[in-house]
Design brief:
The protein has 76 residues and is mostly helical. It has one domain (3-66). The chain is 49% helix and 0% strand. It contains three helices and no strands. It has helices spanning 3-21, 40-53, 63-66. The longest helix is centred in the first third of the chain and has 19 residues, at 3-21. 12% of the residues are buried.
């Protein structure tokens, strides 16, 4: 994995960890992302992050990267 791939993975994992920490969780509890009820600000931040990251082939197998995707966000 290149340094660029590692930085990208770190950004996704870091975002996900902060997102979970705000909800009193240390790790995901296997709910779909939308069931954590992201705020509009969190959802917008995630969209910006994923656009900046793009879809690098090596990241498609990374769980932290994959966990940042959802089809039906529920914004509160």
């Amino acid at each position: 994995m290149s340094q660029s791939d590692l930085i990208t993975t770190f950004k996704c994992t870091s975002w996900l960890n902060k997102f979970l920490n705000r909800r009193g969780l240390k790790q995901p509890d296997h709910r779909p992302l939308y069931e954590y009820h992201a705020t509009k600000e969190e959802y917008d931040e995630l969209k910006r992050l994923l656009r900046a990251v793009g879809q690098q082939e090596m990241l498609k197998r990374d769980q932290g990267y994959a966990a940042c995707f959802t089809e039906s966000p529920r914004i509160i």
